[in-house]
Amino acid sequence: MRALDFVKVRKSYVSPAGAPLVALEDFTWTVDRGRFVTVVGPSGCGKTTLLRMAAGLMPPDDGGAIRIDGELLVAPSPKMSMVFQGIGLMPWKSIFDNVALGLQLQAHRPKLSGEERERIAATLALVGLTGFERYYPHQLSGGMQQRVGLARALVRQPEILLMDEPFGALDAQTRTVLQDELLSLWDRVKSTVLFITHDLDEAIYLSDCVVIMSRRPGRIKQVLEVNLPRPRYGYDARAEPEFARLRNIAWQSIKEEL
Amino acid sequence: MSQSSLPLDRAKAPGGAVALFTALGRSTVAMLVLSGIVFLALWQVVSMNVPPVILPAPAAVFTAFIQLTASGELVMATLATIWPFVIGLSLGFIVGTVLGLLLGIFRPAARVLDPYIFVGWSIPNIAWLPLFIAWFGVGNLTLIIFVFISAVFPQLLTVEAGARDADSFLVEVARSLGGTKREILYSVVLPSSLPYIIAGLRIAVGRALVGIIVGQLLIVATGIGYMFQFYGETLSLAKYFAPLIVVAVLAILLNRGVNWAERIFIPWKIRAFT
């Protein structure tokens, strides 16, 4: 079952000097339902551009199309949630209200029903933030803030989860912990995930499939299937010979693009 | 035992003084009292060495303050100052905030109106006065309008900047969650303007206070502003200080009020220095 289709997606910008700048070229790819797909590539390869287009935040150039469940995407879809590297919590809202915003903007209704309040509480419990409902974002650590970002995305029960380097700004330990938490959450919610990172270990550890991009203008260079058994947090997946083999292939491929 | 305590004892004398100053530094009240004493002492010393017509002694000022309070003159003047101040400032705050938000959000309108606002803001308040007197006569209406003009421009410009520069990343986040323009306005733009509304108020309060004093001095000849003029021109310097004290106290109270509003309305704001 196809969840997300990219057909000949291309995106060009006009550079400050006035010259056209092609960020992404001829990106055609299908993400099947329930898969965890990661896009990696050197900086400037258009991966964030790709995700922003998938989120409906900007349209691809004429001739390209993005479809969700076969429907042409023209604006942000209630079936999707996006998680940002910069997190983007509203500093004036409590943790509870920040998560609530995910529902309010999805339903276009500011008032929360009792069922929705319960769902928010359950989602906060899922990310381990019970008891922090009334805190403000600046009172939490970066890792906890990104858990709130995840909760705001998950409370919408999205079919598709878009993640733009969500752990990029976190320290190495927090990042490792959150990677495991994300996998364990994903086991429960079973959304389709499109994940962007420049960290090859992260890409291989999390994904069913890693899409490697070329340097600008970004094109698909190589696709790696990752067949390490799941759940990967149940054993030391990063120590498996298969992990090292995939990592080596990915690195050789990316190195040519740097 | 006594041997080992000896060096400690020796260290005690300077250590005690250091400890005293450290404790004073930690207590804001103690610091304020101490600085007040130093200020009054300096004032006393200077006043003893110059004629009273240059600087009256603190005690003379205190006596004059009590006299003016007891006679009711100071109280009446203060009341005559407060009500037009409150009306003018409130109107300036409301109009400035609403217009500032509208212009911050509807940029095409702002591009047309911004030059007028900038010119209005740039003209010194005092230059409006003859015009206002010609239009509205000599009276409290002119005074209120003068206070309003003093307050409205800083409020408007600060709020407009706040609404215009709402965090574009947070706007994008709200958009990705499906927010419509209206929802983004309510859930991102307006709340992120709140710190600017308070910052504008802080400037507007100061401007309005200057406006009311200058206005009373030049337009209506009442209130605190007129006391400045009267006791200044008659060289009754001890009495001249009484309205000065009232203005100082008013300024401190108003600033406290703004601080309080800041804590109530923007509790999320992180302060770099406390």
Number of helices of chain B: 11
CATH architecture of the largest domain in chain B: Orthogonal Bundle
State the CATH topology of the largest domain in chain B.
MetI-like fold
Low-confidence stretches of chain A: none
Which architecture of the domain at 1-79 and 190-258 in chain A per CATH?
A: 3-Layer(aba) Sandwich
Kindly give the count of domains of chain B.
2
List the helices and strands of chain B in order. HHHHHHHHHHH
On the 0 to 100 scale, the average pLDDT of chain B is: 89
Annotated CATH topology of the domain at 1-79 and 190-258 in chain A: Rossmann fold
Give the helices and strands of chain A as they follow along the chain.
EEEHEEEHHHEHEHEEH
Rounded Rg of chain B: 26 Å
Assign a percent range to the helix content of chain A. Answer: 25-40%
C-alpha Rg of chain A (nearest Å): 18 Å
- The general outline of chain A is globular
| Largest interface, chains and sizes | A-B, 27 and 22 residues
Distance between the termini of chain A: 35 Å
Assembly form of the protein: heterodimer
Note the total helix count of chain A: 7
Low-pLDDT residue spans of chain B: 1-9
Structural class based on helices, strands and sheet pairing of chain B: mainly alpha
Percentage of residues in DSSP E strands of chain A: 15-25%
